[in-house]
Design goal:
The chain has two domains: 51 residues, Arc Repressor Mutant, subunit A, CATH 1.10.10; 127 residues, Tetracycline Repressor, domain 2 (Orthogonal Bundle), CATH 1.10.357.10. By secondary structure, it is an all-alpha fold. The N and C termini lie far apart (82 Å).
């Protein structure tokens, strides 16, 4: 008689309750990392998800595994949100809403920065194609805006990525939380077509 396969075994779908627990753990970890000023205790993540520490370790056997999963889930959400925003908003408004979502991703990433750097350096966390995926999402938004005439057709998505990274880097330690929003407003305004006099 063979032992039963654990719920998270690759190739076998997880039970519904195991998937729910994993999703709750990812959400609690994301919130904890976004609010963190320093290392986040894994016990606090488990408590925030309403599960025991054993459940956390069953899904994420190491801190690096949890960090990698949160990072990957957040990156997937950020990049997938561009087409969804374009379905319900004009392209320039979709771009502005997307920059807010990207800012939230960057805030979460700050709380994981040390663990990510260590994991990437050691090879225990795969290096994602973050910049390429972010730039591709921006390209989708900018192309829709150029077609609609609400955003400049000459805006290079890679340049816009660099501008966004500059905004987030410049405001990382800023006590004025509204500054990021004001700078994102200015960026989107700069991407609107100029009107000839």
């Amino acid at each position: 008689m063979t032992a039963p396969t654990p719920p998270d075994t690759p190739g076998r779908p997880a039970r519904a309750d195991a998937r729910r627990n994993r999703d709750k753990l990812l959400a609690a970890a994301r919130d904890a990392f976004a609010a963190a000023e320093g290392p986040v205790p894994l016990e606090a993540v488990a408590r925030g998800a309403g599960v025991g520490i054993g459940t956390l370790y069953r899904h994420f056997p190491t801190r690096e595994a949890l960090v990698e999963a949160v990072y990957a889930a957040e990156l997937d959400e950020v990049t997938a949100s561009a087409p969804a925003l374009l379905e319900r908003l004009p392209p320039d408004a979709a771009l502005r809403a997307w920059t807010d979502r990207y800012a939230a991703f960057v805030a979460t990433k700050r709380g994981m920065a040390d663990a990510l750097r260590a994991g990437w350096a050691s090879g225990s966390i795969a290096t994602p194609a973050t910049r390429e995926r972010v730039t591709a999402a921006l390209a989708t938004l900018l192309a829709a805006g150029a077609e609609a005439g609400t955003l400049r057709a000459d805006a290079d998505p890679e340049d816009v990525t660099v501008l966004l990274l500059g905004i987030f880097l410049a405001t990382a330690a800023d006590a004025d939380r509204g500054r990021t929003a004001r700078l994102l407003d200015l960026l989107v305004d700069a991407l609107r077509p100029t009107v000839s006099p």
